From TrEMBL:
Single Gene Ontology BP annotation: glycerophospholipid catabolic process
Protein name as it appears in the record: GP-PDE domain-containing protein
Keyword set, alphabetical order: Hydrolase
Superkingdom field: Eukaryota
Family to which the UniProt record says this protein belongs: Belongs to the glycerophosphoryl diester phosphodiesterase family.
Organism: Caenorhabditis tropicalis
SUPFAM superfamilies for the chain: PLC-like phosphodiesterases, Starch-binding domain-like
Taxonomic classification: Eukaryota, Metazoa, Ecdysozoa, Nematoda, Chromadorea
Sequence ranges of Low complexity compositional bias: 675-689
Length: 689
């Protein structure tokens, strides 16, 4: 009978909550074959602080296996007596290469990895730990944002004070009392409730008695990111909250729940270390998954003394995730992976450039333009994706078009070359079906304010010569994924409208965010294959949402920053590059797409990005100058530039990935020729990035 091996897993985790547990997931069936919901639980050791251990049986036929550690907690929806606790992924190891065990090297007398102690998140001299994504249909992540002029007091005794704010979740079905330092641990379920408000309150001189509660809550602890301070990383709240000053501070609170309909929040106000007021946000206050709510602030006398404005967002599990098991696989993740290169990447803006506003031959955002940029050596090409009325993806930049309507003679109508009168009417792409986009005649939106004699073609409708799939406007994302050169990376900018600083909105009545993002992610999952993809968006909540719905593809935050060229956004996260960098770091995004205009005046956002290891892309019309490109490369060491007319007036070259693949294959061929152990050479080559 073949010998089986006993594989030991022992890991120390420096930062772990009392109610969290460590699991291991990996390539073996007993380790869940990379499915975190089937991961193997470790047992906490009593005699070693924050150390967990497990032993599993490995078949003799296995020569090596890979694995990762993860931190989990259990939440209970308490729907009925039969409801089961739900495992929620708190943190996990996200280095590109998982841990590897070579059984032939590490086994001693049938025991593998004995006396080895791993450190959670650290492997091969590097450390990287990331927040978990949403694993379950019942799970939601709730974000509260308190910023701007959020506080208003009409009681004079409460005005003109500095307050510290703390947000605590609770279940409206129970009189819950809780904290996050309780020491009771029962099996795998941590109990972290303790007296918070009620301990300091009484009725008729008697303490309020807490009613029986479920063993596990339906919510996690609430952590905090402060975007306006030096450390924006999400972490535990202070016992007496964090300072909030109107128009100065920007607080983001985050909670997970498996019973959204029963989740409420208590906002505690502290002044001089003492709690002085409360406010409540109830489930009924949050209408929809994205919005704002105004809640009364109640003083010590139980009378209202003011109100607080809170923005909220609810992120749900991807609708397509259950149909695509690979979404949850922990085998590989590129969410925070980026290989630093000596060569700055060149990214083709809408392919070869903005054809409706600049004199560029190739129509922007078409398969032909994207492929032409790839042919000219672009490492990535940038494209814009939005949805039609019938929820089809289309690659197009602007939210609106001008539709041409033929009509009777009128002073406002414009005669065509054939003498026919026509008028132009603005219409949003979201209000048109895909069939209508293919059928009607459109002009670019800039025609509304531009000269009819513009040297740039503003006709969006394809000409008689543009009849094939490669040249026509409005290709679907699937068409792009199928037909654009697979060697070029794709920077997919997701177009989602926002409020501008003047109070206007880019496109009113848009799609619900979760549904919108899910449709795009589903199309990418189905057609992307092994493509290199980076998502980007100006809407910061969309960026957050993508990271909570999947972990395979990275996200970079697009920011306008301080500008005199564009109407700035109302959201300060998109209006200030320093806060944008803090936001990207706090939400564990890959990086930031900075606007060249602000960086040429103030390079401090680059310093913040470097501090947190963020990837730095730059976009903007300034990059049409070769001197400016050189400045960003040599003085700011940015990772990539997004610009028009890529490869023009230059010697044709191959993109960096083609060159690297060629060098890798040449090295492998030489090692095969010289090595006595071809199998070992192949193993070594598989880790070359």
């Amino acid at each position: 009978m073949d010998q089986e091996y006993k594989a030991h897993f022992k890991v120390h985790c420096a930062e772990i909550k009392e109610w969290e547990r460590i699991h291991v997931v990996g390539s073996l069936p007993v380790l869940g074959e990379w499915n975190p919901r089937k991961s193997f639980p470790l047992i906490k050791l009593d005699n070693e602080e924050n150390t967990f251990h497990a032993i599993v049986t490995v078949p003799s036929a296995v020569k090596e296996f890979q694995f990762r550690y993860l931190r989990v907690m259990y939440l209970d929806p308490s729907e009925n007596s039969l409801s089961e606790p739900v495992m929620v992924l708190s943190k996990w190891e996200t280095l590109y290469n998982p841990r590897t065990c070579l059984i032939g090297v590490e086994s001693r007398n049938g025991v593998v990895r004995n006396n080895m102690i791993d450190e959670f998140g650290s492997y091969g001299g590097r450390t990287q730990i990331s927040d978990g994504w949403i694993l379950n249909e019942k799970e939601n992540v709730v974000y509260f944002r308190i910023h701007g002029e959020a506080l208003k007091f009409f009681a004079k005794s409460y005005a003109n004070r500095e307050y510290r704010l703390k947000v605590e979740p609770f279940d409206v079905r129970y009189s819950e009392m809780f904290s996050y330092t309780h020491k009771e641990i029962n099996d795998r379920r941590g109990i972290w409730r303790h007296s918070s408000v009620y301990a300091s309150m009484s009725i008729d001189g008697e303490d309020v008695v807490n009613l029986p509660t479920p063993e596990l809550p339906c919510f996690s602890n609430t952590d905090l990111s402060v975007l306006t301070r030096e450390d924006p990383i999400f972490g535990d709240q202070y016992f007496n909250g964090s300072v909030f000053r109107n128009d100065q501070d920007y607080l983001v609170f985050r909670t997970r729940t498996v019973s959204l309909q029963n989740l409420a929040f208590r906002i505690e106000f502290y002044h001089k270390e003492k709690r002085c007021a409360l406010s409540y946000v109830l489930p009924s206050s949050m209408s929809g998954t994205h919005g704002a709510t105004v809640s009364p602030v109640i003083g010590l006398s139980s009378a209202p003394v003011g109100h607080i404005n809170v923005n909220y967002m609810i992120v749900k599990r991807s609708q397509y995730a259950e149909k695509n098991p690979e979404v949850d696989s922990m085998r590989e993740t590129f969410g925070r992976y980026w290989r630093k290169r000596n060569r700055m990447l060149q990214i083709g803006h809408r392919g070869m450039g903005s054809s409706y506003t600049k004199n560029i031959d190739q129509r922007e955002n078409t398969i032909f333009s994207l492929n032409e940029a790839a042919r000219r050596g672009a490492d990535y090409v940038e494209l814009d994706v939005q949805l039609t009325k019938d929820l089809k993806t289309v690659v197009y930049h602007d939210f609106h078009l001008l539709v041409t309507v033929a009509g009777r003679d009128s002073p406002s109508n414009t005669p065509t070359a054939g003498g026919e009168n026509k008028s132009l009417h603005e219409i949003a792409i979201k209000d048109l079906t895909l069939a209508q986009l293919k059928l009607l005649h459109f002009e670019h939106i800039s025609r509304a304010n531009g000269s009819p004699d513009s040297p740039v073609s503003l006709s969006v409708t394809p000409s008689k010569n543009e009849t094939d799939e490669l040249h026509v406007p409005f290709p679907s994302l699937a068409q792009v994924l199928r037909n654009v050169d697979e060697n070029v990376g794709l920077n997919i900018e997701i177009k989602y409208p926002m409020y501008m600083k003047d109070g206007s909105h880019e496109c009113e009545g848009y799609f619900e965010q979760n549904k919108f993002v899910d449709i795009i992610l589903a199309e990418v999952a189905e057609h992307a294959g092994n493509r290199r993809i980076v998502f980007s968006c100006f809407e910061p909540d969309i960026c957050t949402m993508i990271t909570k719905k999947q972990h395979k593809y990275p996200v970079s935050f697009l920011v306008v920053g301080a500008t005199n060229r564009y109407m700035p956004f109302q959201d300060i996260r998109s209006d200030c590059s320093k806060i944008a960098a803090n936001f990207a770091a706090g939400c564990e995004l890959l990086g930031v797409n900075f606007h060249s205009e602000e960086l040429l005046i103030d390079r401090n956002p680059i310093t913040i990005a470097d501090k947190y290891g963020l990837v730095k892309f730059v976009w903007g019309d300034d990059l049409n100058s070769k001197e400016v490109q050189k400045h960003f490369k040599e003085e700011m060491n940015v990772d990539g530039l997004i610009f028009d007319r890529i490869g023009e007036d230059e010697v044709m070259k191959q993109n960096v990935f083609v060159v690297e693949n060629h060098n890798r294959n040449s090295l492998f061929a030489r090692s095969q020729h010289n090595s006595r152990s071809p199998s070992m050479s192949r193993r070594c080559m598989s880790t070359v990035e």
